[in-house]
Every structure is written in C-alpha cells, then in structure tokens.
Amino acid sequence: MFRLIENVLVPEAVAELRQIAATSNFVDGRVSNPHSRVKNNQQLHEPQPAERTAQIVARALLGNREFFDVAFPKAIAPPLLARYEPGMNYGLHPDAAMMQTPNGPLRSDLSCTVFLADPASYDGGALRIMLGSGEMRFKGPPGSAIVYPSMTLHEVEPVTRGQRLVAITFIQSRIADPVERDLLYELNEVAALEGNNMAPENFSRLQAVQFNLMRRWTDHP
Ligand SMILES: O=C(O)CCC(=O)C(=O)O
Ligand SMILES: [Fe+2]
C-alpha cells in the first residue's frame, strides 16, 4: 500500500522543524549506514534537536487517524531529519529488515517520508519507488507523509536546485504480511463507510469478521 497522507504536520510543526534544520549541524548520512555505497545525503545528528524532531513527528504520525488505519503501527523508529542539497541523492536500495532503536529492535515493515520543503523550492529529489518494471514518484506538499512498504526498492532522485528537507522513519506494523494488512485496511474502511447502512445484525457479523481477522493476523506480544 502506498499512501500519501496530507496535513500530518500542522504548519507550526513544519516551521519548527525547518527552524531546527536551519540552526543545527548535519553530518554525512552514512553515519547510520556506514557501508552504503548509494547514500549521499545529510542527517541531523545533534542529540537535543534530534530528540525534539523525533517527538514532533512521531506524535503527529501516531495521532493521525489515516496513518493509524493504514499502518497498524506497533512501534516506530525515532524520526530523523534528512537533507539533500544540489548533487545529493540516495540511490536505489531496500530498507533494512531490522533496526536498533532506543526502545529495542524494530522490524521495518513500512517506511515513511514526511515532506518539509515546498516542492516549488527545489528541483529533482522525488522519492521514486519501483513496482516491477513500473514506478511511482512522490514529491509531497509540506506536512504530508508518504507511507510505503519497506521491502520495495526505492531511491531519492538527485536534487538539482534548492534543498530537499524531509523527516524519515520506519514502522513495525502489528500485521507483518503486506497483503493481510492491505486486506484488513480495505475491509475496515468499507465497514466504516457503509456499516451504518447495513441491518444491525449483518453489521455485527461483519464486525466479527473484522475482529477475528485482526486476532488471526496481528503479531502476538
Ligand atoms: O529521503 C527519503 O525520502 C527517503 C530516504 C530513504 O530511503 C532512507 O532513508 O532509507
Ligand atoms: Fe530507504
């Protein structure tokens, strides 16, 4: 499932994150992937602003209804700021399956980019996600988030003008299997949209299917 969710961050949060980026030190993005031969960007790497960034973005994502419905989040890696200046890119790669976080290991099921720069302020820098021989390209408005499966090959195209500023994070879902996750999302959506139009006894049967699939498919603690 690929979903662009608008207005995850309110404009004040976007402004605060831009301010953090403008006043903090960034380092080579390979600090978190030392062996990568395709990563060519910068990451915020100062404890206090990084902690504030993670708090703002994680809280906004976990408080967003659409994100919650799509991702079934169980754990989220601390979101961090990444920056791409002209000439920078992040070549085609998959995201690692397991990541260390301050709260323990996390299996990355979904990856997420929160856009912070105005798309008109930079050229290039689209997030390009491969789908077999096809592709999807995303360059969202400030405050929007693209959520996509971590198993995809994806890249950030070279920035040729301006600056691409994003927050990135990785999510462990309660439903590991992407097909099951998408099926349950669809079922829940249809039930939410049409449930009140159904006879109550039929709606109860539909709810039993929703809840019992959730029982079967979610990770057990
Ligand atoms: O900058 C982005 O939008 C995504 C970066 C990325 O793919 C990653 O950090 O793994
Ligand atoms: Fe990635």
TrEMBL record:
Cofactor binding remark: Binds 1 Fe(2+) ion per subunit.
Bias category Polar residues: which stretches? Answer: 33-45
Cofactor(s) required, per the database record: L-ascorbate; Fe(2+)
One family from Pfam that matches here is 2OG-FeII_Oxy_3
Any GO BP: intracellular iron ion homeostasis
Q: Where is the Fe2OG dioxygenase domain?
A: 75-173
Gene3D superfamilies, per the entry: q2cbj1_9rhob like domain
Q: Which domain of life is it from?
A: Bacteria
Q: What is this protein called?
A: PKHD-type hydroxylase
Which UniProt key words apply to this protein?
Answer: Dioxygenase, Iron, Metal-binding, Oxidoreductase, Vitamin C
Looking up InterPro entries in the UniProt record yields:
Oxoglu/Fe-dep_dioxygenase_dom (IPR005123), PKHD_hydroxylase (IPR023550), Pro_4_hyd_alph (IPR006620), Pro_4_hyd_alph_FE2OG_OXY (IPR044862)
Tell me the GO molecular function terms: 2-oxoglutarate-dependent dioxygenase activity; iron ion binding; L-ascorbic acid binding
Q: What SUPFAM superfamilies does this protein's entry cite?
A: Clavaminate synthase-like
Q: Which HAMAP family match?
A: Hydroxyl_YbiX
The EC code for this enzyme is: 1.14.11.-
Where along the chain is Fe cation bound? H93, D95, H154
Q: What is the lineage of its organism?
A: Bacteria, Pseudomonadati, Pseudomonadota, Alphaproteobacteria, Sphingomonadales
Task: Give the residue ranges for region: Disordered.
Answer: 31-51
| UniProt: 2-oxoglutarate binding residues | R164
NCBIfam families with a match to the protein in the record: PRK05467.1-3, PRK05467.1-4
EC primary class = oxidoreductase
